[in-house]
Queue: 4 jobs
Job 1
Amino acid sequence: MSAHHPVELAAARPDFAAIAEWIPQGASVLDLGCGDGSLLRYLKDTRKVRGYGVEIDDINIVACIQNGVNVIQGDLESGLSGFESDAFDFVLLSQTLQATRHTEPLMQEMLRVGHEGIVSFPNFGYWRGRLNVLLGNMPVSKDLPYQWYDTPNVHLCTLYDFETFCAEHHVHILERRVMTGNNEIRLLPNLLGSTAVYRFQRAT
Amino acid sequence: MPNSSHSVGVVSAQRAQFDTPLTFKSGAVLPRYELVYETYGALNSDKSNAILVCHALSGHHHVAGYYADDISKVGWWDTMIGPGKPVDTNKFFVIGLNNLGGCHGSTGPSSTNPETGKPYGASFPLVTVEDWVESQARLADLLGIKQFAAVMGGSLGGMQALQWSLSHPERVRHVLAIATAPRLTAQNIAFNDVARNAILTDPDFHGGNFYEHGVVPTRGLRLARMLGHITYLSDDAMADKFGRELLSGKLSYGYDIEFEIESYLRYQGDKFAAYFDANTYLLMTKALDYFDPAREYGDDLDKAFAAARANFLVLSFTTDWRFSPERSRAIVHSLLHNHLNVSYGEITSTHGHDSFLMQHTHYHEVMHAYLNNISREFTA
């Protein structure tokens, strides 16, 4: 199916390619809030990963199965108790962090279940968003497509916020990629980057 | 998309005779037996497209389609199986059988024991899920099927599907375990025991040999079925369907049927008692109680599933309290711990345990998607 072709998927979701770059061939992966399974499918096609997605939405369950990926229907917020410690090489949270309610315990659970965690999220410090707020409105963009009254995003943060959180919660950041569209942002990332992707592990 | 208007059409039952003795888990031996079964669709050239459908407590081999002489006798899972349906008979060769110990044509307590010329009755051995899987494997041998594309079932049928992955890991590529459990809870066994007691204490039961007395323990069977029915429905479904409606519109201050729910349960009980064998009912509920693959592994279900090689689809229903989602999640967790391929869906439904038999758009979409993937693994 052409809609799922790896090249097209990577173009539509630049964070997919960034995540894939960090994942070695044949790794085991748990994708939390896996949506329609596109990322897992992409990683299966490009990295031969094996693993599972966790997803709550009925329509997405069907989509995941259609995408040929394992999916477990459940609520991330009620914990990952079904998963054993250190069961996965990577636990992913792609564009989901900002929509989680109990973000701190979830981050800890990610690092209990996986050797490494990877998160991607929209940077709330991106200049367009700041400009929106400065002009008097909550930002609405491609990365933040929701109106303030119907958004699932309850824990939006900036790059700095996330990095401070990690420092205070024994999370050791291994790598960071900041992007706007398909372009990697190295200069003033908290201002110029719209999407951030982090790879991290438990701080020793 | 599944299309409920598509039927496999007219079907007929077939019989298979087995003359190799079958040793049951209990140690009992059945020297010879017959299994009655139906098939739908066509077996492909390398016999890789076969799906075995295992039935639950009161089920049988008539899974889909209808009979030429009685078009009202529609198969019990006709919503799921047929051309264009989730189990698409244009792609799959589907087998439904009546389990050993059943009362729909396969050898069971009501069959004549060739050694005595009388019905087996109480002498028919207690059959376990493992025993059923062995008898099903022999049927597969007879049909030349080395490996099933899938084995599927709901409730007690789901237990058989799970057991296939343990008894014959190399003979099943996919297991679809629906509204089932890795073992019954104490509460669940308790329900079965009350149902059994209703039958066992019926004066017409005669220790299981009622056939020779020309009677049927109708009262016991009725009560057993009424109790079962209560547990298969959800509180909400019952409230929606019957509420506190009175048949005559007013209270009669007596013990006759007054509430709609009483009328419904008695009707279901009478209908069931008219055709179902009491010994089969006892035997099926025992098979449910005994199923416990973790038992041999120090109650460690993870270890029990270590032998499995299949891919799994596990589904539960939100209002099913007899085989609750929690029980299905226990299966899923053990499969995860064994790094097996598994997908799990928790279907929102108001119909309790019975949901697995019902037409339900999302449930059928999940099944359709999963089975469609299976159908891509072989060539017609």
Note: Chain A touches chain B at residues 28, 50, 52, 58, 61-62, 64-66, 68, 70-74, 82-84, 87 (CB under 8 Å).
Job 2
Amino acid sequence: METSRPVVVKRMPDKVNRQEAQKFFADVQPFVTSDRPQLVFDLSQVKQLDAAGVEMLLRCVAEVMKRDGDLKLASPSRQASMVLELTRTDRLFEIYASSTEAARSFSGFLPNAMQSISAFPRSGADGTQMAA
Amino acid sequence: MDVRAIVLIGPAGESNDRPTPVTDSQENFAGIPFSILPVLGHTALGRVVECLKCAGIDSVTVLSAANAESPFVKDSDHPKIKWQNVADAQLWRAAEDEFDHLARGGAELVLVVRLGAYAEIEIDPLLQFHLDQCNHITQVAAADGPLDYFVLSGSRRNDAAFLLRNKLGRMRVQARPYITGGYVNRLQTAADLRRLTLDSLLQKTSIRPQGEQVRPGVWLGQGAKIDHNVRLVAPCYIGPYARVRSGSLITRGSSLEHHTIVDCGTVVEASTLLPFSYLGPGLDLVHSVVGSNRIASVKHAAELEIEDKTLVSVVPTSSIWRTVRHASRLVSFVPHQIFVNLFGGRKAQESRPCLESIDSDFDPRTVARPVVQDRQPLTPSVVTRMREYGNQ
């Protein structure tokens, strides 16, 4: 499962509104449109994420998928996690606890590094989580 | 040392020692015991038999009270094990007879396992413990209670008969149990089956997905077919000869077992599709187990039979029938489209509302022709929101 292609890690700004999203997309466009891109977006600084930001993420993942690549998210802040969960876009991404682990995950499966954003329901109560 | 094993597939007996009361509705899905349902291509029964074989126990007898006609029972019948289908009421009597047969055949120790729970137990330390303690019968227990997993001395036929007549619920002589620290899953509900799948995907058990890891955390079985524009989010498992049609999303520890079909645009999230299941187009399956025309929701702890074949149905188990079905659909596609085009328009005309019967204030044209300029463009965010409210 070794890969020689580079993994690009990009930190998202603290406020991702329409204007910032456009600016961010313009920044990452060369990487997104490369051949089989491997991208990690670090969401640790994100304090505000609106629909335009989510739309930008969806646009990025659509472009990346077209080129047989993948986009993973790393260390989402509480606010970002909530918005992603609310819009049910979190299930479209592999989400990791840190950008290092997200980058490493392109070359091997790291079950313990996956972000535990999805509680496993059991008889109406929350049981164990998806990963430690 | 001559060690042999009897594996029982059937309902549990009553016992005060069990952690939760076991009823008929538990430990099975649509009447099929969880222990013979595949998890990432392996059944709990298969794994237990494999462990016994690895420990050098070659003589394994499986007594099954499950429906013998079920394809899952036929799949589980392995040539290296002695398989015997018995009636539900005769299970314990058959187990007693089999124990006598093994003891007379020279077995010094006999393992009796009821599935039941999936437990990863190291056999050698267990046998050593039994011998060291000089027990007649040693029961295995986990942190949350005892398991239906016993080691019996071949010479103690009376103890064995007492245990089996009491459906593994009581022992004639109480002995110190062997406490296992291995992975244990009670496999009593669909939630437990999902938990076992997820734990196996996250490599917490010794079950490894049957297939090739095509991407980190994504396993594909032999002959699995993934159409274009499908998103597979790790960890997930697509079993042998499964088909995922265009625009689908398989995510968050989902498992599609062999010969399953997921139709266009369907989202499968944290769910299991049992073998030979068909899931219709544009659905959103979350935290569920699907199979045999039934859906068990883990979230709502409920099981539901689905009669609408466009939502959930069963794929024929025979490859010939599958081919015939596909061919018939292909042949009937063009005439069906012609029919829809010819009569679809007239049907729309017939269903036009009768203007006289409606209040004068109501203008049906506003409903029939929505204002085009007010429509929101179909941006990804709008599509996401549409999906959220029911896959229109």
Note: Chain A touches chain B at residues 1, 51-52, 54-55, 58-59, 61-62, 65, 70, 87-89, 91-94, 105-112, 114, 118, 120-124, 127-128, 130-131 (CB under 8 Å).
Job 3
Amino acid sequence: MSLNVPQTLEAEIDELITHYPEKRSASVMLLHAIQEHFGYVSKEAIEWIASKLELKPINVYELVTFYPMFRQEPAGKYVVKVCRTLSCALGGSGKLHGHICSKLGLDSRKHGLQTASDGKFSVEFVECLASCGTAPVMMINDDFYEGVSHERADEIMGKCQ
Amino acid sequence: MPEEFRLILKKADEPGYTPDIDCYMSHGGYESLKKALAIQPKEIEDGKTKTPQEQIRDEVMTSGLRGRGGAGFSCGLKWSFVDRRSGKPIYLICNADESEPGTFKDRQIIHKDPHQLVEGMIISAFANDVNLAYIYIRGEFPNGAKLLNKALNEAREKGFLGKNILGSGFDLEIHVHRGAGAYICGEETGLIESLEGKRAYPRIKPPFFPAVLGLYMCPTIVNNVETLCAVRHIIEMGGAEYAKLGTPRNTGTRIVSLSGQVKKPGYYEIEVGKVTLGELIFHENFGGGLREGRSLKAVIPGGSSAKVLKAGEKFNMKRPNKDGEMESVEVDMLDIPYDFDSLMAAGTMSGSSAIIVMDDSVDIVDVLANVSAFYAHESCGQCTPCREGSLWMSKALNRLTSGKGRKEDAEYLTHIATNIQGRTICAFGEASSWPVLSFVKKFKDEFEAKGAAVQPAEGEPNKEGAATAAK
């Protein structure tokens, strides 16, 4: 099965490649573009990127397994990332993560990204999101939320349709 | 009275200030760039001349600016190491990977005043004959990347980027490159590998000093966001004037990120060394003190890699007396001036200027377990002592926090940490072992108490059951 990359996305990707004197440099940016479009990085996507950049698939695969933001399985429509690191932990992020997990019927002790059974939300307890002064913080897809109480988390997630 | 001194963040929080170019230019933006590009070659003795580029580099050297990313290395010196005779292109990379736990200063600049960074970069690129530059921004700032791309497009439209910038004959292109969640990309050689499209495995130095063998094995400068912004101000006010801010050897301003258990966490820009650690935590102009009824337990003064300071700790420091002679005085940890050298003298560091405050409600073993879990997760895996050791330390700490600890775990942790530091390619080895070494040394009784709380019966392996019974 090959990857069906729409023309507009391929044009965007071709433009990205021109930013670098060496094509290989574009690999992480291409992985972002592909994951944003398809929701995850499939085996076919890895092969597609490798051939685009004149690399071996392993050169791309080793990036997918190294950089925490890339996933090889589809995730929910909304990916919730709660910050786990010290300042947020002191600000109650453990409880916030626990609250969100129990709300979605997930086990907060599990590592990595987990997706709720309805497929709408995925949750991950991630490392520092660099907003330690407004702990606890979380992201939903590209949007960022500060000083998140349990009530506020409920409200924000309620608006995700 | 200790006060904020806003230079870099002067405009960012003004009501109505927006990140677009019109707002930036109506506040004097890109004037420093015009000034830099208008500098004429200057005649010096023996009929020699100094190029405009050399003059800018001199100003930066005179300013005393030290890198704001963590190491505090002289920016002027860093630039002076660049191999300008190799015939290869020279690259400039802005390190916007802000990922040291506790740090959120570059986030403010990127999101509120991106053009200030762009202007600082264009000037720095001009001063170093750079024609292609990158902003390496952490993956978790997707909106920051969009804002920077917008800012770069606006700058291109106004002729501040591209070919023949403002008729000067200088060409420059800047691109935004996103990371993808790996802390190690903040290490400059790891960042370079990552920008080359590889795993961010740091390179060994020597021989891979970026100034000589950096991006694509070409001379490369990697500077932090705040450092590059400071360059813009150095050109505006002159290196000598900039050096009057702050204290000797610790010049200029720094944005301090204050978090943890204080009343008013946030970012505060100060003249370096003019405010003490205690003032930053307790003064009403800064952190405003602890929550009601709480007392101070510990402070991490420079991001989670820095060695912890225990409340009440005293240090011997050299201070000038009233006759101007240096003498050794005892200084409480709260009275340490917040600068590079004083914190180093106290055996720790100002790092990325991120202060994390802990009051007496925290369990110090829990805190270290949290920090160590971070390093175990973020080790790139290249060097065995770090890859294995960071995980062993994290496991031992988890054992302690879950009631399955052993009395000898404190010793064990110190033993592992000692065997990581100095035995790895990059400073991550130190970053992961320094918290462990300092926490265990300064709070040894708490680690031992945790380890002694549950002991397996003689001849019995330490099992789940023992922990449950103790609860």
Note: The first strand of chain A starts at residue 78 and ends at 83.
Job 4
Amino acid sequence: MSEHELTEDLLSAYLDDELDAGARADVETRLAASAEWRTILDEVRDTRDAVRRLPAVDGPTEFWARVMADDTVVDLASERRRRRMPRWGLAVAGAAAAAVVVIGVVAVPQPNRVHPAVATLSDEHAARSSVGNDVISSLASIAVPTRLGR
Amino acid sequence: MKPAGMKRARSGTIGRLVLIAAIVGTACLVIATEATAGDDPEALLRKARDASATANVAGVVEVRWVDGDQVFVERVGARSRGDAYVVGRGEHVAVGRDGMRYAADDGVATRWGSGDQVHAPEPGTAWKLEIDDPAHVAGRAASVVSARDAAGRVRARFYVDRSTHLLLRRDVFDRSGALARSVRFVRLSTGAAAPAVPQLPTKGSQVAATSDVPDGFTAPDHLGAFRLLGRYRHPDGTLQLFYGDGLFSLSVFEQSGLVDWDAMPNGGRRGQVEGQRAATYSTAAGTVVVWGEQGLVLTGVSDAPTDTVQAVLPGVANDNQSTVDDVVNFVFGPFGWE
């Protein structure tokens, strides 16, 4: 006996490839057994395709205000997603996503960008080089202003 | 019994002979010493180094260096009294006393030399040295030492004052024989009244000699003919390795991270070190090469010819130090052994 009662919504989900493997197999079993439901499936498909071919038209300004004020209006796509994932699942997924972001930003060390101070390092070298070598010729290169562009 | 006058005459003759022999012997010794130093380029360069540490000097030094097709020339005043030195003035002054060095413009104030146990190689280890025809620098007669590379090309010349043994001029050449960098006295007086040398800042000494190489950093004992002479830790964590080949010196600065190429100064010539992007700059102090490898930002600075520097730098990130060396360093590191 099938676990799913065949409805037009279920057929719509079937056409949108939104069913899991078990539900999909159930629907296909029922369709194979019933010519009437196969006809209904064709009608749902035709309706869906017709709607998708409609041009996009902006509604009047007050239309969306009325829609949003009506508590009976339901965003079907959101409702469908909500039904498929329980509230606790959303919370866990949200927490996991947040944790990934935190770990990515805080815990994983970001590469340190360095631009060596060429003039200063050049002087540091000359200063060290002057110890134990000819002092004046080494210090002279420190006393000369270093000209590097930016 | 001989007369007293005859005794006095004989002893006087002996005394004169001894005196003459002493004078002649001393003269011969001096001549021999001068001849040895004059004929031996290594001895001449050692004398120049020693003279630099003791002479009283007042003069003007010209620094000339080439960067691409540009030639830079700067002149600075120089004074020294024994082991105290002042070169330049105002913001651009470098002061030295003992191992302390201070540069006003960038705040370098460091006591160097402590912790150095490794002696530099002899000057002729990596270069073929020979005496050239004498020359004159700043109106003084100079002996000239040339340094040739393995291909026989003259890569450097050193002019040493015949009377004081001070280094009067030092030229470095590129592979084609063109002058790449030169430091020389254009005016010089020696032995004059001791010039005043300012006191060094009491603060500073921020760079410390270290026997420890942090994880992820590298410190090869040799880079080509350059021998590691000292390791230093800077306050910002930069590790400085100081090398010498007897004639030239090389510092490698290591910083953890990646090169921020967008923030680097303009003017660097683009190239590669070990297949990695690199930029080469020319400063009064020498060649500066910046590149990144294995999570390190590496900066090599050297007064050696540029091609010599570029030839040895790939060895920085290829430290072939053995496990035995690591163990020895671990055991003796705390005792300051190199």
Note: Chain B touches chain A through 70 residues (CB under 8 Å).
